[in-house]
Amino acid sequence: MSRGEAEAIIQVQVEKLIKKYENIVAVRDLSLDIYTGEILVIVGPSGCGKSTLLSCIAGLEKPDNGNIIIDGEPVFSKERNLFKLPEERNIGMVFQNYALWPHKTVYDNIAYPLKIRNIKKDKVKSEVRRLLDIVRLYGKENRYPHELSGGEQQRVALARALVMNPKVLLLDEPLSSLDAKLREKMQYEIKGLQKDMGIAIIHVTHDQNEAMAMADRIAVMKDGELVQWGTPKEIYECPQTQFVANFVGKANIIDGVVERYGDKKKIVFAGGYIMREADIDGDIGSHVLLSVRPENISLSKDKGAVKGRVAGVNYRGNTMEYRILVDDIHLMVETSSNELYAKGDIVGCEFHKINIVK
Ligand SMILES: Nc1ncnc2c1ncn2[C@@H]1O[C@H](COP(=O)(O)OP(=O)(O)OP(=O)(O)O)[C@@H](O)[C@H]1O
Ligand SMILES: [Mg+2]
Predict the structure, then answer these.
(1) What is the DSSP secondary-structure string of 159-214?
(2) Domains of the chain listed by start with CATH number
(3) What pLDDT sits at residue 7?
């Protein structure tokens, strides 16, 4: 089978999932497919239902409605009154507080899931060795968790989650307690693991950079629903809503008005046009919301249909961050650090890569 075909196999199928806690609907009619060999990163504000979704897939929570299919096997179906326990599902999990057993060595922590299943001693030994190799902890198997660094403990938790050869790995913010350097290293390691083992990973994070760096696809959740999903590039470059534009990256949300432009249309903001001759939906005179990334506004002394005044300047090393006041609206603009304007300068703004959002 070619790699392309292998990647098209659906590993986890979530259909019309609903999970309520008393009067809260934590997951709302949510459907999602995750493919073999894919890292799906779920992002969304606190309380939007990310952990609940993962717990439902893991079998730690029983949903109120819908279906969950893992590796072709239904593990939950309201209709068929089917609910498989976590140990009957082929999954590994690392949660945010990935508690290792403090009084067990690295070896015993990793071996535990095998031992409780009465796997033969020799097999346990060879499997733990295989995992120690994968997470590069060979030689540290006799240490206790407190004798390991945060990143090493993290890798033990990963090894423990992987020891049963799961088809699906669920990661709920497992890297959030690590410092930035270590986190980046672990991101690469998890990505590497996934490529080597060909498993599907669902990874929840609050960290946008982490989402961008790790994801094959990003799913954005809000109030228990999936509001948009796609590759990091699709999500970043074509956010469909104001919420997604602001949640993933920085965005200027601009209220534009549709005006006539010959036999076409243009979108006007603060007396100047920002989009012209485009395929614009909307009647003449109607308002549209636009999202423009800070790096997609260019500044110049004498060009640009929209004029503004530099209200703030921030040196960021490789970039400059400007606040441009257009009428009473602040625009965030990011340019290369050799484009210099001073506070009070009048500049022209040109807009590139604009999205109409809801
Ligand atoms: N056991 C529970 N009992 C009652 N309500 C719960 C329970 N677990 C979660 N909730 C509620 O369900 C909603 C979703 O919670 P969830 O933990 O899934 O959010 P989350 O997206 O993981 O948030 P965070 O980013 O803060 O971890 C929240 O409103 C939360 O208060
Ligand atoms: Mg959570």
Answers:
(1) HHHHTT--SEEEEESTTTTS-HHHHHHHHHHHHHHHHHH--EEEEE-S-HHHHHHH
(2) 1-88+168-249 (3.40.50.300), 91-165 (no CATH), 252-357 (2.40.50.140)
(3) 47
Residue count of the chain, please give it. 358
Closest residue CA from atom 31 of ligand 1: 47
Phi, psi values for residue 334, rounded to 5°: -120, 125
pLDDT averaged over consecutive 10-residue blocks of the chain (358 residues)?
Answer: 57 97 96 94 95 95 97 96 93 82 95 91 94 88 93 88 89 81 81 83 90 94 97 96 94 94 89 81 91 95 90 93 94 89 95 92
Report residue 223 CA to chain centroid gap.
16
Is residue 87 classed as helix, strand or coil in its secondary structure?
A: helix
Ligand nearest to the CA of 19: 1
Phi-psi region of 272 (alpha: psi -120 to 50; beta: other; left: phi over 0): beta
- What is this structure's pTM? 0.88
Whole-number Å distance, alpha carbon 140 to ligand 2 midpoint, is 31
- Spacing, Cα 204 to ligand 2 middle (Å): 8
Instruction: For ligand 1, say whether the CB of 49 is within 6 Å of any of its atoms.
Output: yes
